[in-house]
Amino acid sequence: MKKLLFTALLFVAVFYAGAQTTKPILQSIGVKVYPGAITYKQYKTETLAKELLAYFNDDGFRLTGLYEKHMPITNAEGLEWYVGGGGHFGLWNSSWRLRNPPSTAVFAIGVDGVIGLDYKIPNAPLAISFDWQPSFNLVGHTYFEGGWGGLAVRYTFK
Q1: Along the chain (158 residues), what's the average pLDDT of each consecutive run of 10 residues?
Q2: How many domains does the structure of the chain reveal?
Q3: Residues 109, 140: contact at Cβ < 8 Å?
Q4: pTM exceeds 0.90, yes or no
Q5: What is the CATH classification number for the domain harbouring 11?
Q6: Disulfide-capable partner of 32 in 20, 114, 152, 157 (CB 3.0 to 4.6 Å)?
């Protein structure tokens, strides 16, 4: 268990090392619906952002890190589309393993993609995004997951 915790903490440390920002919206934190997550996004440049998602549900816990390329939509102030990729690390409980035989894996490691829309509400410290986040689990129970994604609401700050 200590080895798994160390791996998760190392993943977070590497993912957030050396961040520099120049965008007016430097950081944002909030919640994402389906599946439920806490989300934190930090811009490295005007168009590159890093996002960390912590998912909690009845099956366990999953930590996902994404690099995203944001591109503005012409004539739509505050609206951008984004695309990116990253990875995840998860810990699953016994009820998940019973519903997904023949898996006996306690943890999962995999790769993720993301594509979506992000809207910063003018004159308000709020951003809303909607995305699709397909993933492929490589270690543990191997499978493709196409049902992740959803609506996020974040508080933005500099």
Answers
A1: 48 46 72 91 94 89 96 94 96 74 78 97 94 93 86 93
A2: 1
A3: yes
A4: no
A5: 2.40.160.20
A6: 152
